[in-house]
Structure formats: structure tokens, C-alpha cells
Amino acid sequence: MGCPPTPLPLSLECTLRPFLFSSSPHHPSPSSTTFFTNTTTLSLHKSRALPLLKLLRRFSSPSAPQPVTPSPLDSSPWPGAFLGPDGLQVLRDFRVTVELDHGGGGGGRGGFLEIRPMLAEELDATAQLLAESFAESMLVPARYVPLLAFLVKQYVAERRYLEPHVTVLVGFYRERGTEGAAQLACTAEISLDARGANAAPPTPVPPRECPYICNMAVRKALRRRRIGWHLLRACEELMTQMKTERNVYLHCRVIDKVPFDMYQKAGYKVVKTDGFLVWLTLQRRKYLMSKELPHEIG
């Protein structure tokens, strides 16, 4: 099955909504409390792009690179590692390599996709990919993508610090027969337990103690090559190896038929749907979907 022609559903509305509705003209603090203090939900409607643009105009480009908070994966395992005694080592060793053919409408000669946890030096590229996908869904002009990337980078760095409770997977694609470095093709965030759960998740709210997939994005030029499908499967493979709770959750907007069909084919079922009153907050209605993972991914 081909990857959806539109970006996979993101949960970055929960990441950025404190900035969208903040009245402060100053730069955001990179502390974790900054990102989850506002309970207003960001809409993906075109009308909500205007407050975003007004806010982005307040931000000046950072004059110096922001420090990246180290992740437990960058150092020795911390005391009390959970999700099994070897949780951090499982993350360090996790790799999924897939050979992609030229089918699915993506053209090209096919190639190879490697999915693994994000490294510290890949933070900028990952934030850029997420910012581009978010801007596309929000109808934000391209000139504001660097500022979005700045905000997203702070969030991703904060989340990565919580490993192994949270992890950010990235996928690199190399076309068959080409030379040079592989290009970043996709990314996804996984909350593995209650300590890694997002403090302001989208509605309907998933159980905090269960693994949750969000912020999935596939590079626009590489869609329709089954990359989204293999990214989803890699998330499930990692959760199985980490011995998390077996019920995994994700969100899908009601209007997004192609991703919805993909999730259904992967075994996800709707467990709750946003009520119509959610429109009063200018949100799009969403499905909360869930799947019980097998003991081993085939």
C-alpha cells in the first residue's frame, strides 16, 4: 500500500499552541514548563494561520545556536532505567532496514530506508522536516518555516531528554544506485509510558500509561513510496522490543481518509471520536485509534 499523498497526521498543534495564544513578545524559554502551560487547542483550519503569523512576526531569528540538552542515549545508562533493564540499550541498538521498490506511484528506481532513533546531530534536520510538514498543514507561508523550526527544535530536544520514556525515530532514504549521503525521509515520536506522555495531548485523550505515536511526517518529495507504512511498523517493532503496554494509541483527523485507511489496514480501530462541539474551539474533529500489539512483530 502506498504512503498517503498528504502529510501523516501531526500532533504539533499541542507542541506549539502555547506560542500561538501567548501574549508575551519575548522568546520562549526552553524549559519544559514553557511548552505545556496553555490548554487552548490549536486548529488546523486556515483561519488559525493568522494568529500564528502575527506571533511569528514577533520572533527575531536567534543570534546564536541554542544548546542541545543531552539525551541519556548520549551517555551511559542512568540509574533506574525502566521498560525492562535494557531499555536504553534497546534504543541504542534499534535499526529497521527496508528495501523499497519503485511501486506505489512514487517513481524512481526504488531504494533503501533505514529507521532508527534520532542522534543529537540530526536534531536540526528533524525539526526542519516537522516544521515544513506543520506549515504545509497550517497553510503558513514558507518564509516562516525557519521560525517554526526554531520552536519545534526546542520541543524535540526536550522530548529527547526523556529517553527512554520517549524516543524520536528518523528514517533515512537512499535511492538504489546513487552515491552520497542518504536523505532524511521521515520522523515519528513515540511516548512509551506515563513518564513520557505529552502533558497536553490532543483530544480525545489517550491513556497516559500506554504508548502513543504522534508527530509523524514524511518528506513531501518521497511520499507514495510506502515510507509512512514502514515508519508505522518500525514504531510498533520498537514498542514490542521495549516491552511497553500492548495497547498503542494514535490520532487521525476525521477528514484524513487516506491515513485513516492506512491505519485501519495496519489493524488500528477507532475507540473514540471528538464531539461536534470541538468545532467551537476551531479544531478539526479527530479519531483516537488503538491497536493491541502482538508479542512479536512479524
Automatic annotation (TrEMBL):
What CDD domains would the database entry show? NAT_SF (cd04301)
Q: Which SUPFAM superfamilies match?
A: Acyl-CoA N-acyltransferases (Nat)
**Which PROSITE patterns does the annotation name?**
GNAT (PS51186)
Domain N-acetyltransferase, by residue range, is 113-294
Q: Which Pfam families match?
A: Acetyltransf_1
Molecular function GO terms recorded: acyltransferase activity, transferring groups other than amino-acyl groups
* Name of the protein in its database record: N-acetyltransferase domain-containing protein
Species: Musa balbisiana (Banana)
